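Risk register update: the risk of archive-format incompatibility is retired. Evidence:
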Amino acid sequence: MIGLLQRVREARVCIAGEVVGEIDAGLLLLVCAEQGDSEQQAEKLLTKLLKLRIFSDEQGKMNLSLQDRVATSQPAGLLIVSQFTLAADTSGGNRPSFTQAASPADGLRLYDWLVQRARSLHPHVQTGRFGADMQVELINDGPVTIPIRIAPAATLT
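Archived output:
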């Protein structure tokens, strides 16, 4: 499973001019399920992003996680957007290949699972819409952008 995590001051997802998901300060997660992924990879990705210490503490050091911010009553939204293009393979020419992305059915199943699990662990979760033509607007904070890749189960040790 591939995630691209961005610390944001605000972010929103629009479809046909309508805002379908929006957060103030927090994290934007662009996520892609790959072939062979399961709920195990989604759980590891979610656990990592909730605990990743990428928010500034009182001394300005990146020392707080999304969960830490919630515990201290600071704004801390999570916006989850599906993006199969994260699985792009550009090694074979000028047209990206997406053969490593999960099938649409598996991608949707894992995306829905990830969103429901995130909502059970975090108080403010918003989403885009799987498979839709979305426009994502954000103000990146820092900027802080971190790629996260959780290997498929066959390669986990």
